[in-house]
Amino acid sequence: MTTTRKIALEEHFMAPGFQEYTAMFFDKIDTANQDDLAARLDDFDRLRLEEMDRHGIETVVLSQSGPSVQAEADTARAIRRARENNEYLAERMAPHGDRYAGFATLAMQDPKAAADELEYAVRELGFKGSLINGHSNGVYYDDPAYDVFWERMQDLDVPLYLHPINPWKEVDSMRGHPELAGAVWGWGVETGTHALRLLFGGVFDRFPNLKIILGHMGEGLPFMRWRFDSRFPVYAQGVSLDLPPSQYFGRNIVITTSGVCSAPTLMAAIGEMGEDAVLFSVDYPYESTELAARFIEEAPISDAVREKVCRGNAKRLLKL
To answer: What are phi and psi of 146, to 5 degrees?
Structure first.
């Protein structure tokens, strides 16, 4: 099998003490897998690099495993722990040169503090953006109070990876079906809805150069672009946008392949988003690097498009 050089963007680690946040979903995984995942999340120097080398991944962008400080109820503690996380990551990445890049953890409970931490992480630690695990204790970021954060992020010209989290409250339609509430379905619904709140809340009109990354083939949103354009004018409810909803995809929203190793889905995503807006990822260590690499190598796309998805788009977006 031909090996295309790759950059992966949704790749996780565990900072010391952050297990207290992860327990809300980690405990649902069977014990044998928990032990393996814990070992891989803690590793920077051997297991991860070996996996990367086997499958042609030249760089991974590391981010704290969810839900991180988004689940912290104490805002001051969230701010402090975000800084601890980011400095720990910078320290662990340093011996490995350009094999690792970083996405900052941010305490979005305080928009100004989050903006300041993002600037510190980008300017002082060399991070390439941030990864945010959805809402912070039920607060979503289309609220105008977050404009101070979005303005700073736009000025820094770095992306935000919007990663899944549990809904703030149980969703009635999933009551009695815990198998649906998490990664199988509920996380995608939660995260896709949050992204649509940003879009229909006018965040991308106020800050047209923002870049939001969605994993898992865009949490299903790219395949609804036509219907968004069709139904929004009919059910606008007083909301107005500068562009048809579909036009924010590719301009402001880009997607990764993390956790969806389906060639037909990839081809449809490229068809909807364009070949410059789809990026390779694994979701390590929760998904198989081998499977993800084989999928992208064997997908029936041209070598030129494969190079963009595997590497070129990430280099451009993250300035690698």
So the answer is: -90, 0
